[in-house]
Amino acid sequence: MTATDPALTALAQGWCALSALHGRIEAHIERALQGKHDLSVREYSLLDVLSRQHAGQGGHLQMKQVADAVVLSQSATTRLVTRLEDRGLLERYLCPTDRRGIYTNVTAAGLSLLEEARPTNDAALREALDDAAKNPELAPLVRVVESLSMPA
C-alpha cells in the first residue's frame, strides 16, 4: 500500500472523522461537567470506573487496569487519583492480603457527585451526538455509536 492508495486514503479519512467525533463529544461533555459540577471528563470517567468496583476476589482494579479504562498513562492516572483524593472524592488504602497493593475507592462524597453529574454527562452526550448527526461525514459514526449496546 502506498500513501495514495484509495483504501488507505479512505481509512485515513474514516480515522479523521472518528477523531473529530470524539473531540466534539468530549469537548461538549467537558464544558457541561465543568460548568455544573466542577469535574473534568477524565475525573468523571475515573469516578465512574472506580464506582463499579466491588469488594472481594477480583473486585478491585489495579492502577494499570484503571489507567487502561480511562485511557491515560499510569502516571497521569496516579496524578488524577491524587487530585480527586485531595478533594475528598476518593480514598486509597493498602490491600489487606498484599501490603504492596493499593486500592482506590470512591468516597460517599464522590458517589454523590457522580450521581449528580451522571444526568449532565448523559444529556451532554446526547446533545453532542444529535449535533454531530447533522454533519454528513459524522452521521454514519453517530449511528454506529447509537447502535452499540454494552452487556449489563
Q: Can you offer a commentary on this structure?
A:
The chain is mainly alpha-helical. It contains six helices and two strands. A two-stranded antiparallel ribbon has the order 1-2. A hairpin with a 7-residue loop joins strand 1 and strand 2 (102-106). Helix 1 packs across helix 5 (108-132) and helix 3 packs across helix 4 (74-86). The longest helix has 32 residues, at 6-37. The chain is globular. The mean pLDDT is 88.
User: Spatial order of the strands in the main sheet?
Assistant: 1-2
Sheet of most strands: 2 strands, antiparallel
Helix count?
6
Report the C-alpha radius of gyration, rounded.
19 Å
Beta-strand content bin = 5-15%
Q: How helix-rich are the residues, as a percent range?
A: 55-70%
Order of helices and strands: HHHHEEHH
- The geometry reads as globular
How many DSSP E strands? 2
Structural class assignment: mainly alpha
Span of the ends, CA to CA: 41 Å
> Uncertain spans, ≥5 residues at pLDDT below 50?
none
Mean pLDDT: 88
Question: Strands, helices and their partners?
Answer:
Blueprint: H1 6-37, H2 41-51, H3 63-70, H4 74-86, E1 90-94, E2 102-106, H5 108-132, H6 139-147
Task: Please provide a brief summary of the model.
The chain is mainly α.
